[in-house]
Specification:
The chain is mostly helical and 139 residues long. The protein has helices spanning 6-29, 33-61, 71-102, 106-136. It contains four helices and no strands.
């Protein structure tokens, strides 16, 4: 694996995290706490691996210029801006949601998870969209 492979790996990690988050939601709605916990910790691991890989890639390559022109450029930068702001916010939110769960403070965990889950899901999904627009779009 080379540095040039990392964007695709990052997209896979983001997609995996998004799928695990959705699965975790379904599991907790079905009352399967142990399975929910395992899946959510796997989502956290995917996101942590993503962040590590992302930082390694950008430390080596720097920023990558979006080449799209016209209206798609505005769409890309709107997605990128919301993704970036929420990506920064999601790290402490995940920690603040995880700690009460690990301490069996499920009332607090549930309140925070109602905010954290959709934001974390958005960050994961838009990470894949950004990858596709930046590295896979023709144009």
């Amino acid at each position: 694996m080379t540095v040039s492979d990392l964007p695709a790996l990052n997209a896979c990690l983001n997609a995996s995290s998004a799928l695990l988050l959705a699965t975790g939601y379904v599991l907790i709605r079905r009352g399967r706490r142990d399975a929910h916990k395992r899946v959510m910790l796997a989502a956290l691991a995917c996101s942590a691996l993503f962040l590590t890989s992302y930082l390694v890639y950008h430390a080596q390559v720097g920023s990558v210029r979006f080449r799209g022109q016209g209206p798609i450029r505005r769409v890309y930068f709107t997605i990128l801006l919301t993704h970036t702001v929420l990506a920064v916010a999601i790290v402490p939110l995940v920690v603040m949601t995880l700690v009460p769960a690990l301490r069996a403070r499920f009332d607090r965990h549930r309140r925070l998870a109602r905010i954290t889950l959709p934001l974390w899901g958005y960050v994961s999904v838009t990470g894949v969209v950004i990858y596709w627009m930046l590295y896979r779009m023709v144009g």
